[in-house]
Amino acid sequence: MIAGLTSKCSIVGHLMLDGLGKNSRGLLGTSYEMMRMTCNNFLSQQHRTFIQMRTNLKVVDNSGAKRVMCIQALKGKKGARLGDTIIASVKEAQPRGKVKKGDVVYGVVVRAAMQRGRCDGSEIKFDDNAVVLVNKQGEPIGTRVFGPVPHELRKKKHVKILTLAEHIA
């Protein structure tokens, strides 16, 4: 992926340098520096994407799982966003929990690092990717949900998760 980003930056740089022409020899050094700085800034920015296959997510309920890996997003071709349901495999679990390591479970994404626009024009974005485990009917497996949960879950018909949550963002 980084090689692809580097090639895009270098293509832009060559186009920028070719556009200057031969008459502006003094500007070549400064434009090259600008192009190099822009590419470095572009590469250093953290790229936030959808929750897709093989994404590791933190479990924020008391079902017994600590970390899951997304197997499939049930809605959308690119991946899952806030409020979407995913199928996941449990990677880490507590010793005497309701779910065990290796179990295939359903989960609702309650926190995502990708920005999501709201109706009032603001955007919501979290620091991590987190999920609440649910059964096939969409009811939570655990009895508590830790951390903030966005109120967009109400539109997606996950009201039970909102009632169990500590804080609604």
**Main beta sheet, described?**
5 strands, mixed, barrel
- The shape is globular
Oligomer: single chain
Number of strands: 9
Please tell me the CATH architecture of the largest domain by its name: Beta Barrel
Question: Which CATH first-tier class of the largest domain would you pick?
Answer: Mainly Beta
- In the residues, how many domains can be counted? 2
Q: What percent of residues adopt helix (DSSP H or I)?
A: 25-40%
Q: What's the rounded overall pLDDT mean?
A: 79
CATH superfamily of the largest domain: Ribosomal protein L14/L23
CATH topology of the largest domain: Ribosomal Protein L14
| Number of contiguous helices | 3
Beginning-to-end CA distance, first to last residue:
33 Å
Q: List SSEs in N-to-C order.
A: HHEEEEEEEEHE
SS-derived structural category? alpha+beta
Output the radius of gyration.
Answer: 22 Å
Ranges with pLDDT <50 over ≥5 residues? Answer: 1-20
Structure description:
This protein is an alpha+beta fold. It has two domains: about 45 residues; about 110 residues, Ribosomal protein L14/L23 (Ribosomal Protein L14, Beta Barrel). It is about 25% helix and about 30% strand. It has a five-stranded mixed beta barrel with strand order 1-2-3-4-7. Helix 1 packs antiparallel against helix 2. The protein is globular, with a radius of gyration of 22 Å. The N terminus is likely disordered.
Secondary structure elements and pairings:
Blueprint: H1 2-20, H2 25-44, E1 56-59, E2 65-73, E3 85-93, E4 104-111, E5 116-117, E6 123-124, E7 130-134, E8 145-149, H3 159-164, E9 165-168
Parallel strand pairs: 1-7, 8-9
Antiparallel strand pairs: 1-2, 2-3, 3-4, 4-7, 5-6
Helix pairs in contact: 1-2
